[in-house]
Amino acid sequence: MNPIDRIRGGLVVSVQAYPGEPMRHPDTMRRVAESAVRGGAAGIRAQGIDDLRAMRPVIDLPLMGLWKDGDSGVFITPTVIHAVEVARTGCEIVAVDGTRRPRPDGSSLAETVAAVHREGALLMADCATLADGVAAAEVGADLIGTTLSGYTPDSPRTPGPDLDLVAALVRELGLPVVAEGRIHTPDQAGAALDAGAHAVVVGTAITHPATITSWFVDATRVRP
Question: Which helix (H) or strand (E) holds 193?
């Protein structure tokens, strides 16, 4: 069964830690990924060559890999070289910035798609708007994600997942749409699938203890 079919209707758990955090270590991320697998995840999304290499031998699920380089503009697998290196870790799916913004190496998204396909992997375009998704589909992206909705100047940020974007992409494209971004509860994950998402990616609410702790701390502070 191909990786797109394997994640259909399922939960892909994003296992990532920010720079400088105690959990930012390949072995730790591998263990978190293994725990997500035990919980029933349909796939794992992870970033960084070392993390992906640590996970690949022990994760028998579709692995959605990316490489974050920088923290502004196009930084999710931003160049052709980044994408090829991610594919060579053994990931079935390479996630890249799928917006229409200029890429650091001057390449086009079409060139990145072609390079990933030559490596035998699929490409997921992390998009922010319907126009991004349409453009990514036109150049051969295999999956379209709502990952960057609310994180670019041309996409307003919704309090929760951008279900309107999910529905619009499903309606306009003949490709699997992956809902990602600000999905913090099981109900929100279910709503994304009801909106037509092929699969749902959840990261912070499952794998980021600092943020989860802060939610509880904030809730206790408002009490008398």
Answer: helix 186-194
pLDDT digits (tens, 9 = 90+) for 162-197: 999 999 999 999 999 999 999 999 999 999 999 999
pTM of the model as a whole: 0.97
Decide: residue 72, CB within 10 A, 0-12 exposed, 13-18 middle, 19+ buried. exposed
Residue pLDDT, tens place only, 28-60: 999 999 999 999 999 999 999 999 999 999 999
Range of the domain at 87: 3-221
Q: What is the CATH number for 203?
A: 3.20.20.70
Which one, of 42, 44, 109, lies nearest residue 77 by Cα? Answer: 109
CA 113 – CA 223 distance, rounded (Å): 51
- Please give the tally of structural domains in the chain: 1
